[in-house]
């Protein structure tokens, strides 16, 4: 008798599997442009100076106690202020229920569980393509999921007509997942005018917008520009939810620090909704970890540290934008006949290169360059030192 004989190996994660393969390769020129984690121009992980200073300030404090089930209220308030804009009317009216979550993943999962419990008839619509883990999250929360058209391969840009058509066809009161900025994996975002049109469409269809905001500040370098979609929807009076993560924007990946916020009818409803979010969290993990929320709250509540963070997040965004320019230029200088404009048009951490799975295989086998099968290149892994090598490999496999 064996308890676990029926257990089969789980499918490999399409993103995390790339890193394992990279680590196993001993070639000196190997490059990892798979996982979305920021690297400096020397290819090294970065701890932001604002985070170091926040650590110095909180060091030695009595910070081992449990947080409440919903996490640090101060952290949540600061976090939501950043996402919605500090002057947002819904915040003044105390209409927003917010809880600390286990980074962006945990925030989306908590909301999916909330949907299942309180709007079980609602189905979720995810962009095609989207971050692969979104599909796992809604599957495991037992929320029916569909996709809507988002990316048009022929233009390597937004399929705005297809997107609108699919959201019109979706049943009223669907939950629509939107990437607030720096869409992963495509790097393609709607323009402000397109967001406004979408907001109108959501009104007509009474769809619920769930904003996944994993890259605020990372896209443009300006946190208040990267939240424009949310501000547009709030101005139109939508109820919305927002899943925030500080993994990328503050480089707090492993601290698992995020926030789920839900806009309600009024303050009383916000209190009720928050209590139910806590009630979902309690049997899963009881309460979230303390360190990340202290770091973020320390940075966001101090004007010097906040200014330093704004500068550092802009530096990261600018380095990535610079690498986009360099990659495109190198390809053009090599005489590539392909159009590489999308490399500089796309925004955020990723370049959706258009490489086919076969070309990606060649990138890895012949050049030891590791990336996901869908042709996504993490621009954060590109440096002055490897951009030429990368461009040459792309040129060779796309000739
Ligand atoms: N949403 C999107 C679109 C992402 O790209 C990511 C990070 N890869 C996340 C959510 C969540 O990441 P984390 O749980 O590390 O905050």
TrEMBL record:
Q: Which cofactor does it need?
A: pyridoxal 5'-phosphate
What do the Gene Ontology cellular component annotations say?
mitochondrion
Keyword Nucleotide-binding in annotation: no
Q: What class of enzyme is it?
A: transferase
What's its EC? 2.6.1.1
Cross-referenced Pfam families:
Aminotran_1_2
**Could you tell me which residue ranges the Aminotransferase class I/classII large domain spans?**
29-394
A biological process from GO: amino acid metabolic process
Q: What else is known?
A: In eukaryotes there are cytoplasmic, mitochondrial and chloroplastic isozymes.
What name does the UniProt record give this protein?
Answer: Aspartate aminotransferase
């Amino acid at each position: 008798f064996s308890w676990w004989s029926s257990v089969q190996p789980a499918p490999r994660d399409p993103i995390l599997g790339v890193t394992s393969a990279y680590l196993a390769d001993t070639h000196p020129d190997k490059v990892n442009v798979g996982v979305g984690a920021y690297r400096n121009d020397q290819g090294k992980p970065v701890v932001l100076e604002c985070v170091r200073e926040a650590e110095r300030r909180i060091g030695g404090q009595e910070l081992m106690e449990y947080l409440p089930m919903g996490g640090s209220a101060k952290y949540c308030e600061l976090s939501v202020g950043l996402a919605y804009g500090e002057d947002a009317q819904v915040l003044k009216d105390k209409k927003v229920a917010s809880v600390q979550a286990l980074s962006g993943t945990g925030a989306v999962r908590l909301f999916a569980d909330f949907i299942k419990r309180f709007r079980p008839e609602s189905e979720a619509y995810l962009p095609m393509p989207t971050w692969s883990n979104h599909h796992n999250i809604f599957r495991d929360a037992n929320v029916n999921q569909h996709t809507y058209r988002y990316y048009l391969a022929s233009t390597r840009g937004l399929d705005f007509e297809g997107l609108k058509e699919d959201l019109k066809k979706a049943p009223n009161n669907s939950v629509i997942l939107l990437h607030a900025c720096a869409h992963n994996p495509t790097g393609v975002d709607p323009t402000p005018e397109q967001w406004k049109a979408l907001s109108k469409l959501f009104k007509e269809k009474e769809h619920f917008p769930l904003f996944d905001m994993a890259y605020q500040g990372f896209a443009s370098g300006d946190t208040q520009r990267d939240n424009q979609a949310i501000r547009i929807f709030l101005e139109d009076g939508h109820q919305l939810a927002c899943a925030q993560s500080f993994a990328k924007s503050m480089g707090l990946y492993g601290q698992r620090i995020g926030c789920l916020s839900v806009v309600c009818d009024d303050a009383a409803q916000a209190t009720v909704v928050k209590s139910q979010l806590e009630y979902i969290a309690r049997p899963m993990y009881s309460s979230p970890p303390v360190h990340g929320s202290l770091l973020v709250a320390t940075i966001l509540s101090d004007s010097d540290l906040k200014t330093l963070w704004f500068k550092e997040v802009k530096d990261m965004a600018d380095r990535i934008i610079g690498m986009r320019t360099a990659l495109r230029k190198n390809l053009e200088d090599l005489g590539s006949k392909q159009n590489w404009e999308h490399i500089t048009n796309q925004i955020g951490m990723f370049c959706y290169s258009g490489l086919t799975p076969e070309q990606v295989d060649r990138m890895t086998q012949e050049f030891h360059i590791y990336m996901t099968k869908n042709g996504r290149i993490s621009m954060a892994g590109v440096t002055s030192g490897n951009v030429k090598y990368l461009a040459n490999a792309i040129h060779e496999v796309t000739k």
